[in-house]
Amino acid sequence: MVTSIHLSFEEMWEKIIACDRKYDGLFFTAVKTTKIYCRPSCRSKKPKKVNVEFYHDINEVENAGYRPCKRCQPEVVHSPHIETVRAIITFLVNHYKQSIGLKDIAEQVGLSPFYLERLFKQETNETPRTYLEKIRIDKAAYLLKNTNLTNLEICYEVGFQSPSNFYKVFRALKNCSPSEYRKELLYEMD
Known about the structure:
Elements: H1 9-17, E1 28-31, E2 36-38, E3 52-55, H2 58-63, E4 67-68, H3 82-94, H4 102-109, H5 113-124, H6 128-146, H7 151-157, H8 163-174, H9 178-189
Parallel strand pairs: 2-4
Antiparallel strand pairs: 1-2, 1-3
Cofactor: Zn(2+)
Keywords: Activator, DNA-binding, Methyltransferase, Transcription, Transcription regulation, Transferase
Protein name: Helix-turn-helix domain-containing protein
């Protein structure tokens, strides 16, 4: 099973600023000045970017001398299935560019497709497909903000097979089209 997630520092920074629960347990935010570590979704005051380190493993962050946040309690495991769900999410994040079916995910984590979908939905309130779409849209938003790639190039870069589906899912999750999203970002920068 794949255990570490492939996100850049900037991507992880964006996840903690957005308090994104989708990435809880996949990485931890450690603050050098306070020696405290948190989940990506922690609602505590955000630290200065220069004071942040990211760790992929709870043992690694604790061995580095950090203690858990009392607000978000990153050391508390809320479910007996958390490791399986983490493995599924890690697989989705690391393979979002590929055409992934439920069978592919099930083979990766050693579960039947039916049980995997039921377990994942029970733990996250989403299907693996909708979760994957959110990851792809997160990546697309990041690329719209940080590159000059066209919408079509981004569509295929983040793993969508059809532009119409990309635009539909983007609008559903961001309440605007990719072009409108990019224009908003440019407007905010002025």
